[in-house]
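FORM 12-B: Structure-to-Sequence Request
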């Protein structure tokens, strides 16, 4: 009995002595709570640094955005392939995520070796090897005939700009294949798979193993928002608020951040706790100076740390009676599994003896106790450090959510965590001590990270399918060069039709003679009134033209025309106009003045002279009754008479295109075309009199108002008109009319966009499938909004803000789609304009028999002026479709009022000349 007690006493004493000895020797590895709190605070600062746009480049903890935005919601389904590369084992898997609401995942997998010559050889060979394994797997599982989406778990730091791309920042752990760093892993693997012609695999997602782990666990526990790996390497990811991720646009919702915490300390932040053993281990590693935190923690390094310590202790005579075995000198001889075995609760000591003996040592009882304690200190330090960093993440989550207490789940994986007998318990305990205000559940990922990767892939494949639907819609608006050439040629035919007496009555492009026969010659002078009706603004102007100097002074006032007047009776409309003139004269102090007036009236009018214009039909937003078929000059005169306050001499009625051409022609004599890309769409140009069969005479030229907005009204554009164009047409004031205008001008582009958005929403591809009242409202997308949305300088957030102002509650993804839709619609408009204009300038070139034509086009209209890309695309298209014409575009700065006044001046001069004769 006494002997037993004595033995026990002896052993306890021995144990105490050994532990004390080791503790003394490794005191630097034992971290106090205070130190851990300090490390936790440092890691919090590191995270902040990694998230900041300006600070990220120099941050050692990279905080990589993963483009994984949500945890699984159970709606994921389908069959996926998965690769899991970078941990201790390389696996290929098939994952079946089942439908019908039941959370059910089935996996079949196959392990493949990763020989050193492959993972440290040539990058191309590494990817070929991976492709070979995948091909082998598919063959054995009879999957070759299927097109399957693939999720790639790739457990290295990758910079992502989207889910299906990842540029390797640096190899870590055991890998070091050449020529891979700085390149996109997904495309390398895709390329490598090309050699297998019968494999149809689409890599839809690249995820880090931490992300895969988090997603795997989140599939079972929706509280899971952190993923931690303590295996060959160590790392963590967590869900961060988008508003804190400065490297990714958008501030809505959350995105998973791969912290790459293994690199914590690479900038020297942990020097105070690193020991000589850490330094020595680092120097002998594949990546010296890198992953310093990882090297104090993870499975690849723990055994080695123990070996280095034992060696040093033996050298110092503290172990094995000062004897060292040669095996103890060999790098990698002690592995993490040994450390785990030595720390086993009951068999630990026996295991230690066996392991040391295998190393060629002859350990005493005391040695075994000491070595076991060395292991404990090393693995305890590992758990402590992990706990400190994890505590920092949990605190961040809690603060992001502004909670007093956080309830959360951490998904865990990695061999060290899984096989070490004490590790999980220690880690959990320390975490709970460091963050007492978090209720943390640790959930072991039983099925590795692939299940989670499949979830991410499932979401990506749904997004891809949606993307395809969106692309299908946008493709309807893409015109090929052949189509554009076809449109140019059709326009040319229509121009000829409208000019010919026989075909004119049926022509849809009306080619209206304007009786404007020459450009201003600079001798014009006098004071004129001008009206400018039909564009965005109604204006009354006073224009003073000074002869000789080609200078003009203008005063104008903008008036609004209320909708009920635009669409009321003709009398009301003209009375309103006269009221505005009266106000203007009053305002200018010109009451009673009898001035010649030029009337810019931007609607199709049949003219028999410069001062007569019968409105053929209203276009755009006007629909006043009793005007069509009437002479608008007469209507204006009668309204003036009705008011009986002043008299005006209405000398000319001009279309806005003509006014624009004149405005520009005053400065550039080459200007023979006037183009409006505004509320409406139209063009005028100088035509040879001999071609104008409707007007007597063959000499000289006359301006023709083409009214090309009606192009296509005979169905000749039906092959490119989309269902959206038809819907816009049907909802317009003049269904069936002005089809080209409705595909090109400001008043309708926004409407086309709105129709597309409604359709995409119906298909569940936008605005969470909800069609709001605002979206049902006609006219919300004015040209100015389209122009703003498409501005390149605008960040996504600003686009979202504009949409919000329009009453559309959009996510950032929605905003991207809306911007694309706007882009497709406005591009088509600009190209159609270009095709139309090419027809005209080509006609002019041919008619004059020129090899090359130099011509200036005067342009006006809010679409042309405000839109960021419209003018460029229009110009490029003209160049492409009329290569022999050198077209200069001249923006009309002063509007068409000036041109109208100039026309009036010329007409007045001719009038007087006639009278004098
Ligand atoms: C596995 C995961 O379970 O754990 C891998 O499927 C991950 O994706 C690995 O890389 C990490 O642990 P270890 O110990 O294999 O590096
Ligand atoms: C103005 C002209 O500058 O542009 C008007 O003065 C013309 O005559 C108008 O109708 C066209 O653009 P919008 O965009 O106002 O229809
Ligand atoms: C290394 C890798 C990291 C990975 C971790 C665990 O730290 O850099 O991406 O998550 O190992 O496998
Ligand atoms: C409409 C009108 C046309 C005008 C154009 C631009 O197409 O019919 O006359 O020039 O809009 O305002």
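FORM 12-B RESPONSE
SEQUENCE OUT:
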């Amino acid at each position: 009995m006494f002997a037993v007690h004595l033995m026990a006493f002896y052993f306890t004493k021995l144990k105490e002595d050994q532990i004390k000895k080791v503790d003394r020797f490794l005191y630097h590895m034992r971290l106090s709570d205070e130190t851990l709190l300090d490390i936790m605070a440092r890691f919090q600062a590191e995270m902040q640094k990694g998230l900041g746009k300006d600070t990220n480049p120099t941050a050692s903890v990279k905080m990589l955005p993963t483009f994984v935005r949500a945890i699984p919601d159970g709606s994921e389904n389908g069959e996926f392939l998965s690769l899991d590369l970078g941990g201790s084992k390389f696996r290929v898997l098939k994952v079946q995520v089942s439908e019908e609401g039941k959370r059910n995942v089935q996996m079949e997998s196959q392990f493949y070796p990763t020989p050193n010559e492959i993972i440290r050889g040539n990058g191309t060979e590494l990817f070929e090897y991976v492709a070979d394994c995948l091909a082998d797997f598919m063959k054995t599982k009879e999957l070759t005939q299927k097109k399957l989406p693939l999720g790639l778990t790739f457990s290295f730091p990758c910079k992502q700009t989207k889910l299906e791309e990842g540029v390797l920042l640096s190899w870590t752990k055991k890998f070091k294949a050449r020529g891979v760093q700085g390149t996109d892993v997904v495309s390398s693997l895709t390329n490598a798979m090309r050699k297998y012609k019968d494999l149809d695999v689409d890599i839809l997602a690249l995820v880090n193993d931490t992300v895969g782990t988090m997603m795997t666990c989140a599939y079972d526990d929706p509280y899971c928002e952190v993923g931690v790996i303590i295996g060959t390497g160590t790392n963590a990811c967590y869900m961060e608020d988008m508003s804190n991720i400065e490297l990714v646009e958008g501030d809505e919702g959350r995105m998973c951040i791969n912290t790459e915490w293994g690199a914590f300390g690479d900038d020297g932040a942990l020097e105070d706790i690193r020991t000589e053993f850490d330094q020595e281990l680092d120097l002998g590693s594949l990546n010296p100076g890198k992953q310093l935190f990882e090297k104090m923690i993870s499975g690849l390094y723990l055994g080695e740390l123990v070996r280095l310590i034992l060696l040093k202790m033996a050298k110092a005579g503290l172990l094995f009676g000062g004897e060292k075995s040669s095996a103890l000198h060999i790098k990698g001889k002690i592995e993490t599994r040994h450390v785990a075995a030595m720390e086993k609760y009951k068999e630990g000591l026996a295991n230690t003896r066996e392991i040391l003996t295998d190393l060629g040592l002859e350990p005493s009882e005391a040695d075994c106790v000491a070595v076991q304690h060395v292991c404990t200190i090393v693995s305890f330090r590992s758990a402590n450090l992990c706990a400190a960093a994890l505590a920092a993440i949990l605190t961040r989550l809690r603060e992001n959510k502004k909670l007093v207490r956080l309830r959360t789940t951490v998904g865990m994986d990695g061999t060290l965590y899984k096989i070490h007998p004490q590790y999980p318990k220690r880690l959990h305990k320390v975490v709970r001590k460091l963050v007492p205000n978090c209720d943390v559940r640790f959930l072991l990922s039983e099925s590795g990270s692939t299940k989670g990767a499949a979830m991410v892939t499932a979401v990506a494949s749904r997004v891809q399918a949606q993307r395809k639907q969106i692309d299908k819609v946008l493709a309807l608006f893409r015109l090929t060069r052949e189509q554009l050439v076809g449109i140019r040629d059709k326009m040319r035919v229509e121009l000829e039709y409208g000019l010919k007496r026989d075909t004119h009555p049926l022509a849809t492009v009306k080619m209206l003679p304007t009786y404007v026969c020459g450009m201003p010659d600079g001798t014009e002078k006098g004071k004129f009134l001008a009206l400018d009706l039909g564009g965005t603004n109604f204006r009354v102007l006073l224009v003073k033209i000074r002869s000789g100097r080609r200078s003009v002074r203008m005063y104008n006032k903008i008036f609004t025309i209320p909708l009920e007047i635009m669409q009321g009776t003709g009398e009301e409309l003209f009375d309103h106009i006269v009221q505005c003139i009266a106000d203007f004269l009053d305002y200018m102090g010109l009451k009673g003045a009898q001035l010649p007036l030029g009337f810019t009236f931007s609607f199709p009018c049949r003219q028999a002279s410069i001062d007569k214009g019968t409105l053929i039909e209203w276009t755009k937003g006007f629909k006043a009754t009793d005007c069509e078929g009437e002479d608008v000059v007469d209507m204006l005169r009668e309204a003036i008479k009705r008011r009986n306050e002043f008299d005006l001499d209405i000398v000319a009625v001009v279309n806005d295109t003509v006014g624009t051409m004149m405005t520009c022609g005053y400065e550039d004599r080459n200007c023979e075309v006037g183009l409006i890309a505004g509320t409406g769409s139209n063009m005028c140009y100088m035509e040879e009199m001999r071609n104008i069969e409707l007007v007597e005479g063959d000499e000289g030229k006359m301006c023709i108002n083409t009214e090309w907005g009606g192009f296509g009204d005979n169905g000749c554009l039906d092959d490119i008109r989309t269902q959206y164009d038809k819907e816009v047409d049907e909802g317009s004031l003049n269904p069936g009319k002005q089809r080209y205008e409705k595909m090109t001008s400001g008043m309708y582009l926004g409407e086309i966009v709105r129709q597309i958005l409604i359709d995409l929403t119906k298909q569940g591809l936008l605005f969470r499938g909800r069609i709001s009242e605002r979206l049902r409202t006609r006219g919300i997308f004015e040209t100015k909004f389209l122009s703003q949305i498409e501005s390149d300088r605008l960040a996504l957030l600003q686009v979202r803000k504009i949409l919000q102002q329009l009453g559309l509650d959009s996510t950032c993804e929605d905003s991207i789609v809306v911007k694309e839709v706007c882009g497709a619609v406005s591009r088509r408009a600009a190209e159609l304009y270009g095709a139309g204009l090419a027809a005209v300038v080509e006609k002019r070139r041919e008619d004059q028999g020129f090899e090359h034509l130099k011509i200036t086009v005067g342009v006006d209209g809010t679409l042309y002026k405000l839109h960021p890309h419209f003018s460029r695309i229009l110009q490029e298209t003209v160049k492409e479709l009329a290569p022999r014409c050198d077209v200069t575009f001249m923006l009309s700065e002063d509007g068409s009022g000036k041109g109208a006044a100039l026309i009036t001046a010329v007409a007045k001069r001719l009038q007087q000349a006639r009278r004098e004769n």
